[in-house]
């Protein structure tokens, strides 16, 4: 065995030991964290996504649908709404679209009421918004949804 080959063997052995320690530590930490604090399943939940006809909103809507959520998309772009609804339905998801300018408070009230009449309760961060709580939905629209 040459010196060069011996160095490679030692390098590979140290790399293996280092990675084994890292992955073992990760497994122990994950084992100690209760399952309820890990990633939450959104399968069957109803998610409201504003600005979901294009850009990041569209990608989030499609991702939520692929994860099993029923998606409600609000946007002012009617063509984009039709496109995202088609993509979600092709992927096997359930989607409702509403044309709404969220800069117009009255349009938001009207659309929120329509959603609650047609669909029912929607899941909002850490609570369910019931039809009598439309005001809470409107007042909390600036709360960041992704944490």
UniProtKB/TrEMBL annotation:
It holds the Pfam family adh_short. SUPFAM superfamilies: NAD(P)-binding Rossmann-fold domains. The chain crosses the membrane at residues 13-33. Keywords: Membrane, Oxidoreductase, Transmembrane, Transmembrane helix. GO terms for molecular function: oxidoreductase activity, acting on the CH-OH group of donors, NAD or NADP as acceptor. Belongs to the short-chain dehydrogenases/reductases (SDR) family. This is Estradiol 17-beta-dehydrogenase 11. It comes from Acromyrmex echinatior. The lineage of its organism: Eukaryota, Metazoa, Ecdysozoa, Arthropoda, Hexapoda.
